[in-house]
């Protein structure tokens, strides 16, 4: 059961995992209640962990930045304002330079599922990826990727000429550089303001995955088309990060349960996102929105952008003074290749097979007695 209520003085919603008694712990996310990651990852994960620990670990999931804003979750979890949280590296670039660099490498990926699992491995088992979280005082236990980003637009642009001069809300980084490379104008609009910016005509397009037509940002009413140009997913984040003292106080068995339920939640998320993508595109077609294949010159421009080191990513990282940037790019790229191969060898439509794969390749390699404990 999920209960919805508002905080005093706030319009943000709270999703409380059953049972209905007050939760022992707080989990903070800036994502809204209808976001696919909220619906399919955080809320059911909290419910399942509470059930399996007989209520001893009972998280109340606060959504929409009700407890901590997006740029405050890392510090807030480290300082125990919340015991767990969803942390996006893009909000804290100074603290998370490596994770901000790898956020663009997924332009090379062919599968958002592979991106989630590569990022989870990078944070759990790769020294560079792992140390950046621990260095900021939190315990990382998994990542999560969106569906591949596309363009959701007013009008029906499909070619380079069509995109010339269009104002596009981007998530920064590679998406902004690519927009500039095709003659468009990247605009800094927050996720929560995307609908109104499109409605007012302040922007012509937004970089989002198509599940946000009728879920999440729910922009179907203010766009005319989806341009199916895959531009990597948004993933550079900790789906779950925990306060150090909270983590230290857990038993090894409780940590093992968190690992297992995290693996199950990653499977559930991608199964749900696949279905949501299919449903959103079908509903868009039924409602008269154009689902457009990009013109050859737009595809060629994207391929050239990726071939050019994802718009010169390594040079940008060097100019920012990011230590070990090339090692991070190379090692994360290798993980993407690894997981593309593993997914090709396994049936991603079989939830139990995917759970077993994730446990074997990732969480079974962690010792619940010692992982993250200081």
From TrEMBL:
Residues 1-22 form the signal peptide. Keywords: Periplasm, Signal, Transport. Its main location: periplasm. GO terms for cellular component: periplasmic space. One of its GO terms (biological process) is transmembrane transport. It holds the Pfam family DctP. The keyword Transport applies. It is found in: Periplasm. Belongs to the bacterial solute-binding protein 7 family. PANTHER family: C4-DICARBOXYLATE-BINDING PROTEIN DCTB, PTHR33376. This is TRAP-type C4-dicarboxylate transport system, periplasmic component. It comes from Salipiger profundus.
């Amino acid at each position: 059961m999920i209960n919805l209520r508002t905080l005093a003085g706030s319009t943000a919603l709270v999703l409380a995992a059953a049972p209905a008694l007050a939760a022992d712990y707080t989990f903070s996310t800036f994502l809204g209640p209808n976001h696919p990651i909220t619906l399919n990852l955080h809320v059911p994960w909290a419910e399942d962990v509470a059930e399996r620990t007989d209520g001893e670990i009972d998280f109340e999931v606060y959504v929409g930045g009700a407890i901590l804003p997006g740029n405050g979750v890392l510090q807030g979890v480290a300082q125990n304002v919340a015991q767990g949280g969803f942390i996006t590296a893009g909000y804290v670039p100074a603290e998370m330079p490596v994770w901000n660099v790898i956020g663009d490498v997924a332009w090379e990926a062919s599968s958002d599922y592979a991106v989630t699992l590569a990022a989870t491995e990078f944070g759990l088992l790769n020294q560079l990826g792992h140390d950046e979280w621990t260095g900021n005082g939190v315990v990382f236990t998994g990542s999560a990727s969106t569906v591949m980003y596309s363009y959701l637009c007013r009008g029906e642009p499909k070619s380079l000429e069509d995109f010339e001069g269009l104002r596009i809300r981007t998530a920064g980084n590679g998406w902004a550089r690519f927009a500039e490379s095709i003659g468009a104008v990247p605009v800094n609009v927050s996720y929560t303001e995307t609908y109104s910016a499109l409605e007012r005509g302040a922007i012509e397009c937004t970089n989002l995955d198509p599940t946000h037509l009728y879920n999440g940002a729910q922009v179907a009413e203010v766009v005319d088309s989806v341009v199916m140009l895959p531009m990597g997913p948004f993933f550079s984040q900790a789906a779950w990060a925990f306060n150090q003292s909270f983590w230290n106080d857990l038993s090894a068995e409780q940590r093992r349960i968190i690992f297992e339920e995290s693996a199950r939640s990653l499977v559930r998320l991608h199964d749900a996102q696949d279905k949501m993508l299919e449903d959103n595109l079908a509903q868009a077609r039924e409602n008269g929105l154009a689902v457009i294949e990009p013109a050859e010159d737009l595809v060629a421009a994207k391929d050239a952008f990726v071939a050019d080191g994802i718009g010169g990513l390594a040079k940008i990282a060097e100019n920012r003074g990011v230590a070990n940037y090339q090692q991070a790019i190379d090692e994360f790229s290798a993980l993407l290749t690894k997981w593309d191969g593993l997914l090709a060898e396994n049936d991603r439509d079989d939830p139990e097979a995917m759970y077993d794969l994730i446990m074997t390749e990732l969480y079974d390699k962690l010792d619940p007695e010692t992982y993250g404990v200081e």
